[in-house]
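Quick entry, no commentary yet.
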Amino acid sequence: MGEKEPKEKTGFFSRIKSGLTKTRSKLSDGVGRVFLGEKTINDELLEEIETVLLTSDVGVDATTQIVEELTKEVARKELADSKALYKQLMKQLIGLLERVEQPLEIPESDNPFVILMVGVNGVGKTTTTGKLAKLLQRSGKSVLLAAGDTYRAAAVEQLKVWGERNDVSVIAQGTGADSASDRLNSSSRLSTLVTCRGNSLT
């Protein structure tokens, strides 16, 4: 299924919030179900946590790191009950984000600044690309979109809609074409380039 387009009159930050709701709800609802009621800390509970993290697109490496750390703390008897385990899980998730959090700073240069969007199917790469293009455009940047996701049905068309909506040029071949040629054709065009690449795992 294609990603739903936001309404025209919705504010920019409201649309970002809406786009993140799906993944956030899947994670929070899943964790909530795991910790519903009084739970005994055991291997089964840790496996349930692992499943929720993986199915919420947290990623294999991050999930493995989190579960291993929780397992060590359980073995050291540092977590007295499921509430303590929940708090430690939240701390681990926040810590992962804080380590990679940084502002998007685009240096002044005659060369293009490339932002490559990568993610599993359905997480909102194309929609986020369109929103990011608008934000950069409003900040005075020259923006060009290049369609790297040429295999998903309607992906190119969806990016073109965002380009038309934001009055941003889109470099794209037909569905199934070599996506590398799009990026090659666009690499010398404008100061800021946002490319959308799908069908890849982070």
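second:
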Amino acid sequence: MFYVNSSNIKNLPEGAVLNIFKKGSNLLLQDHFGSWEQELKGSWIQEGREITFKRFGRKVIFRQIDTWLQDFDITDYLQGCQSSYFIQVKGDIKSLPAAGWKLHISAKNLADYISLMEILLPWMKANNILFKVVRPSTWASFTEGVQAGKFITVYLNSAHQLMNIPSEIKSILMEENNITVPGELHLGGRIYARYGAFKGKTIPDQFGNPVADIRGIAHPAWIAPLSVEDVF
């Protein structure tokens, strides 16, 4: 995968099939009609490959046909912390309260998850929402068990943080028949919610005293349940 300046392809339709060919000592990316070309650099790029592209936020990702977004594509785009299983958007985790609502956004399969990220991540990043995503390479670890379906985790500063979400993204989030997230409130479609610790392993009780954050329950007794109307 590689990035180029999106202004160089503004006249090309998204999804157009492009070819890599050699011209002198340079490798060039060109459309089938020869009306557009871009010089390429990178030792992995091979002459004769067919390439397509998709806009991802303000960047454009070119990839070999029939390949997915890779871990390093997302890491480069989000510019945040990473671990063996997750990539987090760059942001100040200290700005979050000690505890609050986490939204887990599920998907049907790997292809669906990739499409979901390409649509949702640019909007969340542009709106300074803190979130993390599962590395595509570790997808299989999140299809069953206690972590099932937790592909995108959104940390809400308040229950109403997503009120300005565009209707087209909202409709995608409300699509059904995804992998179920166990032990959480199902708000509808892809969205599940749990009240828990943002930092550490404790949450404040109704008196402000720290108590254990118990996994497997959607919210403690002193916290009112969240609804989809609260979120949207």
